[in-house]
């Protein structure tokens, strides 16, 4: 089964923020072995989640893994994204959608923060 991955960010009005997001998505692409890896944003930037899903479904994907690049389990994670995925499931009933976990409280994040503190301390 052809699988596609969508890294879902919040989106920003600033070019710099979107460039950082693009860089992270490229790093992910280099590290995982899936047929298609795309980006999407919740708001303020393109492509939207619906646009990315449409693109990869047109490419023949039958399984879509959506992983949010969100630190906290806020409203987007708890409500907005599940609602959007439900709509997409209705649009594409032949496609399996999987919603991954947000980053959350992860030791790797704490280690990165320690590095940042040491950089300036």
Automatic annotation (TrEMBL):
Metal-binding among keywords: yes
Pfam families in the cross-refs: CbiX (PF01903)
Keywords for the protein's UniProt record, in alphabetical order: Lyase, Metal-binding
Chain coiled-coil ranges: none
Any one GO molecular-function label of the UniProt entry: metal ion binding
Entry keyword annotation includes DNA repair: no
Source organism superkingdom: Bacteria
Protein name per the record: Cobalamin biosynthesis protein CbiX
Organism of provenance: Orenia metallireducens
Organism lineage string: Bacteria, Bacillati, Bacillota, Clostridia, Halanaerobiales
């Amino acid at each position: 089964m052809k699988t596609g991955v969508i890294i879902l960010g919040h989106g920003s009005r600033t070019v710099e923020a979107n460039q950082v997001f693009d860089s992270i998505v490229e790093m992910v692409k280099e590290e995982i072995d899936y047929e298609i890896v795309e980006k999407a944003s919740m708001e303020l930037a393109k492509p939207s989640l619906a646009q990315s899903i449409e693109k990869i479904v047109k490419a023949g994907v039958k399984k879509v893994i959506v992983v949010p690049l969100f630190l906290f389990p806020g409203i987007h994670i708890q409500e907005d994204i599940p609602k959007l995925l439900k709509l997409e499931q209705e649009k594409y009933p032949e496609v399996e959608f999987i919603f991954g976990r947000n980053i959350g409280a992860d030791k790797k994040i704490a280690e990165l923060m320690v590095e940042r503190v040491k950089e300036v301390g």
